Amino acid sequence: MRDEEIEKLRGVVRDCVSKHLYSSAIFFADKVAAFTADPADIYMQAQALFLGRHYRRAFHLLNASKIVLSDLRFRYLAAKCLVLSSIFLPFREELKEWDQCLSMLGEAKVDDEGNVSDTKDSNVMYLDKDCEDREINISSAICFLRGKAYEALENRAQARLWYKAAIKADPLCYEALECLIENHMLTCQEEANLISSLQFGSEDGWLSSFYSCLIKKVMQYDKENVVEAKFRELENESCKSDQSDTSFFRTLKSNTDLLACKAEYYHQCGEYQKCFDLTYVLLERDLFHLKCTLVHLAAAVELGHSNELYLMACNLVKDYPQMALSWFAVGCYYYCIKKYDQSRRYFSKATSLDGTFPPAWIGYGNAYAAQEEGDQAMSAYRTAARLFPG
Q1: In sequence order, which residues have a C-beta less than 8 Å from that of residue 40 and are 6 or more positions away?
Q2: Residue 151 to residues 102, 161, 162, 231, 386, Cα–Cα distance (Å)
Q3: How many other β-carbons are positioned within 10 Å of the β-carbon of residue 294?
Q4: In this structure, how many other beta carbons lie within 10 angstroms of the beta carbon of residue 91?
């Protein structure tokens, strides 16, 4: 087969992936890899298998390749296959898969500041580089996956260090920062120090401001209008979307993530009505924005809006029955109407579904405290403080 015909087949594979026709992508990628035996085509075939949820088959393909030990992309995808193939395994077997994931990623050490050393991850082959898209550093993705593995193995101290390493290796690795913030792994000062240590590109000024808004705001209360200034800066950040009309700009002013961040700021400031009004409008636009949902629930509890809590809880349990947030919402409703025994039951169910969901532990403690059961309340608060130092 001629080179131009093979290149057309590669295009078919990419198009199948873009249209979510994964079986077709697997079929054609397999034929391309058979014709060429090129590492890039083998990687493309493994990607198609991964997207088609054939994780074991993809892992076998990658592991059979001699390149898997020397190429970071092969190793990273193989480790991801191990992780996702463990989802339906018994708990002990799942832990073994996470251990294998760490072995596949290779040995490396990280210090308290998130700096990686003693790593052999230096031989990187860049595959499928036909486009000029900006990429996230593969080393950052590997650090992030190490963090996820350690978190699954309940080694939160190591997970925290590897998440820090991931975001420091590439500030575009937002997921690492998200895990650090949402799991409350860092103190206020540590969050501020981490953001200030990141090396943003010249075009990423907006991202630096956005990250500054995401971290805990209590450290900034003493500085007048610091947080508000960051929000204004982001709201005024513009992008010319029509080159023929210089007066037409798009901004982040109505961006849902930014509005959710601002709502969280209002909540931390104790301005619950402003927080509730903002999240109410935002959820009308994006009903399934779960980060906003959590802030909305918290504000509704503070304001005593039991009807809103009831409706939110019903919808969440219907749409996300396996999520801790859904049962946390049920607990919030019962807490709001002062049925504390029932609220504890559902807060407990939320922690059983996700032991790393901080609001459920706090709610559990609050429900005990409302009935003046101080010892049990303190036990829940201590658990929260131990698991979530931030």
Answers
A1: 127, 128
A2: 12, 11, 10, 32, 15
A3: 21
A4: 7
pLDDT in tens, 42-60: 999 999 999 999 999 999 9
Find where tokens 């290779």 sit: 106
Burial of 213-243, coded b for 16+ CB within 10 Å and e otherwise, reads bbbbbeebeeeeeebeebbebbbebeeeeee
Are 292 and 261 a contacting pair, CB within 8 Å? Answer: no
Q: Tell me which H or E stretch contains 249.
A: strand 249-251
The reported pTM is 0.85
CB 16 within 8 A of CB 22: yes
Is residue 347 a contact partner of residue 355, using CB atoms and an 8 Å limit?
no
User: Can you tell me which residue has the tokens 């700009």?
Assistant: 249
Angle at 320 between CA 314 and CA 325, to 5 degrees: 80
CA distance 253 to 91: 44
Evaluate whether 302 touches 290 at the Cβ level (below 8 Å): no
Q: Greater confidence, 110 or 237?
A: 110
